[in-house]
Design brief:
148 residues; mainly alpha; homodimer; DNA-binding
DNA sequence: AAAATACTTTACGTTTACGTAAACTTTATC
DNA sequence: GATAAAGTTTACGTAAACGTAAAGTATTTT
């Protein structure tokens, strides 16, 4: 069984390499909704998915507030009226535009890194050419060794 | 002349839609290096490029510290020894890996947004189907109007 | 049953990236 | 020459996203 039904806080923390502090913080901010057994948190696989989404969002530069907004909107959307659905579609379109911008940024950055890398390699080649010439010089004039 | 040689702080701020406070902060953190005329800052086109890079970095989720590191590294690299060049190449490789991760994240997000949007559209279609049926019912039983 | 382990709440501390206000100087405009 | 506009420094404030104790509870292991 790959998909357990419930998770402890430390299981999730270990799996996604975050601290338990972070997980509790995400709950505090309303992004996760674990149930309790006594006072101990019990996380569902839905919570697990959301944690994954939170972290991916972070890597993509989304704030927790933004991610929460999406979560909330989605939850309302599922049983929502027309207005809610249209709002969700609109939000999705906006996010898509944001992703397009990011893709452009990444493409630009990659191009610039290409030229940066090329310059580095040229400079390296130059240095190594000089080195070889020095070695050559030594081989052709071994009296420099004899003089020692 | 599209490329002026120098810029005032408010020119740059307006062009890139940031506050002068931010620009001063970036200088304070060592990311920009304007010269002075009296005590007034004068920014070069190099500064302008760097500001552009700073902002793109931000959109890509880079911290100012990360961006500064790259700037500093690059400046040292240009006139650098072999060690510096190799370090730069290594750093570039790392950044590339980071961008790959981001591209994956974006692709994943786009797929999920596709299915989310599809669900929205289905739900909308359902709602509008219901609406049409109500309209039809009214047309077929106009006595409901007469009863008013 | 004692000790170790995992979990909890409460609460103050920290870093990043600025916002905002105060008080002042320099430059442009009427 | 007064006034407005743009610039400056200094400095305190703030939101986000946790870090880091402290002090207590609950459970598991020996």
């Amino acid at each position: 069984m790959d998909i357990k039904k419930t998770y402890s806080i430390s299981e999730l923390a270990k799996e996604f390499d975050v601290t338990t502090r972070s997980v509790r913080f995400y709950e505090d901010q309303g992004l996760l909704h674990p149930t309790r057994r006594g006072q101990t948190r019990i996380f569902s696989s839905k919570d697990r998915v959301r944690l994954k989404l939170i972290l991916r969002g972070k890597r993509m530069g989304f704030s927790l507030a933004e991610t929460k907004e999406l979560f909330d909107l989605w939850d309302e959307t599922l049983s929502g009226n027309e207005k809610q659905l249209l709002l969700m579609l609109d939000t999705l379109a906006n996010k898509r535009a944001q992703l397009e911008q990011q893709k452009n940024d990444i493409a630009q950055a990659e191009m610039e890194m290409d030229t940066a890398e090329a310059r580095c390699r040229e400079a390296l080649a130059e240095l190594q050419k000089k080195k070889r010439q020095q070695t050559k010089a030594k081989q052709e004039e071994p009296e420099s060794i004899e003089q020692k």
